[in-house]
Amino acid sequence: MYSQTEILFNFLAGGGELPKKFDLKKYLIGMAGIHPSDFQENYIDASKRLLDVKGSVLSGASEQFISNFVTDINTHHSVLMAEIQRLGTELEKAKQEGNPEKESMLMNMLNEAINRIPKPGSVPVAVPLVQQLPPEPEPEKSVLFSVASRQYIEIKRGSVGVEEIQQIHTASKLFLRFMKDKQLHEYTRKDARHFIESVRNLPIRYGKSPGDRGKTLNQIIEEAKRRDGEYATLSTKTINRHVRNLNNIWKYAISVDDLEDKKDNEIWEKHIITPVRQELTDRRPFKDSELKILQETPWKPRVHINTVRQIISIASYTGMRLEEICRLRPCDIEKIDGILCFNIQPHKDANGKTVWDPKTEAGERIIPLHPFLKSPELGLLERAENCRKSGKGMIFFDLSYDKSRKKYGVQFSKRFSDFKTLAGLPAETVFHSFRHLVRTKLGHRSGGEIYPVEWIDQVMGHESSGQGAQYNKDGTTVANLNKVIKTLKYQDWDPMKIKIK
Predict the structure, then answer these.
(1) What is the pTM of this model?
(2) What's phi and psi for 215, nearest 5 deg?
């Protein structure tokens, strides 16, 4: 009986296959029935009892289960097999000798040996119940967020403007600022809410300084509170834009089969978003129609009309901040690589002490002069040269200094606010709207030019990803920045046409 089992198992171990409906019990009982004279009734009954169990386990079992059973038999039954073979040989001899007493004794010994075969479950073989369970589904896989966001930006680069690409990049960078980089399917709706709550508390000026990168969220908030206890936070519009761009990254991953399309992966849907402390009005760029109205509105006295035209012209063709313009010195206009530029740099006194610094490290930058700013009609270069010759420290020396705010631009800011109110423009337009306008125009070029976002960031004095803010540091060349500046064009806007009342 065991020799037949061994033959069967050796056949399987050698790569043989059993029929799909193979029944081991029936097979072995059938083999025992071939030589009924070799067995007594009690041996066959014992065999049946054992085979009933093993047969029920192995009948229809998988090849892996049978292979496990073969291994178990070979390991645990080697001694029993040797004993059974020895008893079988002795039993055969007793039959040939015609010695029924010895034959009976050997038969009893053989039965005892067979009864010592471990019962199912007494050794750690594969459990039948495991075989009956359906196979476990393969774990879900997807791509890392950093990979998905990079792929999405690249696929969008050819169909949207630089401004939108920059917004997607900003949202992605902000997400990795507060969240670990994981596979998309590993993020939950709770993670999405955690990100939203984090950015809700960010100061509206977050990201303007490279120093923010090395600080925790709590440190950023504490510094904002020290500057202004009622500091404004990111607006609803800004937060919604970040969430929308992140949601589009998830949707893109689903569309290219990098993420499974199921409810659990819709983590950015239906969040209620409110700011902590939003500014009353969101600044925005001027519209073309509003610029035309400004041009037709007379300027009231108090600031000389030439100063007004020149300051507004610089803002329109550089995007410089008002204080940066008002603090321009004759030495801040210089030729670099043969190109006339504004050099926005720290101001120092005679002892070398810094008395004024641009807002951030990114604020230190080189901005080539647009042809409009070099025109004799505007008179900016002539004014700067006259100041140089006369020893005046600042180009716009006629602006008064506000000691409490420590700024030169306060007076002009108030006068411009009156000017645009007289023109009937809405509250969301301010002098800073010129800066927004320049950034928008550089990001939506109509001439088909394609320049890296980093070049535009250098012109604007924005912190840039992977690029420095200064020429000859980590940034691009003045020639490339000059190409960017020359793309600025206006149809119905000419600051020189602003008239005095």
Answers:
(1) 0.52
(2) -110, 150
